[in-house]
Amino acid sequence: MITTEKIKKKNKISKLNLQYYKKLYLIRRCEEKIITHYSEDQMKTPMHMSMGAEAIAVGICQALEANDQVFGTYRSHALFLAKTEDTDDFFAEIYGKQTASLKGRGGSMHLCSPDYGFMGTSAIVASAIPVAVGAAFANKQANNDRIVAVFFGDGAVEEGVFWESLNLASLMKLPILFVCEDNGLAVHTPKSQRRGYESIIDVVSNFNCLAFEAKTTDVEVIHKLASKAIDRVKTEMLPCFLRLRYFRYLEHVGVNQDFDATYRSKDKPEQWLKVDPIGLQRRKLKDLGIEEEEITDIEMDINSKIDSSIAKAKEADFSGISELYQGVLA
Length: 330
Ligand SMILES: Cc1ncc(C[n+]2csc(CCOP(=O)(O)OP(=O)(O)O)c2C)c(N)n1
Ligand SMILES: [Mg+2]
What we know:
By secondary structure, the chain is α/β, with parallel strands linked by helices. It has helices at about 5-40, 55-65, 75-85, 85-95, 130-140, 160-170, 200-205, 220-235, 265-275, 275-285, 290-315; strands at about 70-75, 120, 150-155, 175-180, 185, 190, 210-215, 240-245.
């Protein structure tokens, strides 16, 4: 028998699944548009694309509160859009325009929107990690219940500052999630040629730090894992390290595929593409009984929003020469 409770639960699930899908689709579509327009040479910034990793940013941000804080890397398109959904700001920065939060001085590698808790990204591997630990310390002192999530690649774990930061966070019991977006590569170098140990989870577990890992493209699984991690960070007052694996669809920097390059095997893409995070959620929506028409309407709305943001970014002005030294600290 179908009870009212069951219907309510199903509606709640569908609503959440729609939220996931909207964000995933938004991120993918923004990057597809970057690929379309990049050759026009109006986006004067290197591109480190998130494609393939979308479920990680969306799943973690879904588990965070609006005023929780995130820090990222030069590969943070997905994280920025998952946290802010602000496509106007995103494209203004990508096109280097004055209308962006950073007035177009940062480009793709330096995104920042503190009003949304998006604290910043940097091109220097691992450099956001100690800053994020500082923010977590400030939050603990302020007793404000905020969580910090710092995202970094598997290559960042080879930097000394990662270990110093992990040590301090473990010692001071800071409310922070260390989110390792693990694509197995640092530029073109696989982990087997970089590390003197097998399992990062085993090593991190020796600290006073919780540690979990997952190999999935299912945003729902990542959301649940992140929620569990955040609950435990809050109740046990310990930091947490999450290792989340994904397949980088495009070249290290740039907007092209490089599946035929010698540094990675050709059979891998197929396995991962079968469970593409966006395709997977779309199929789930259909399984939940959501009509094709409703899904395409959502996609059309998102497409229009993105097209409008790109048009506004293209029309906007660059910052003037007189502003060049504003905000420079050194
Ligand atoms: C401190 C530092 N060393 C070296 C580099 C050059 N570099 C840029 S990206 C990169 C690889 C980083 O790999 P990973 O952290 O796994 O991130 P991914 O690109 O895979 O997302 C390196 C070595 C850098 N930017 N900063
Ligand atoms: Mg990597």
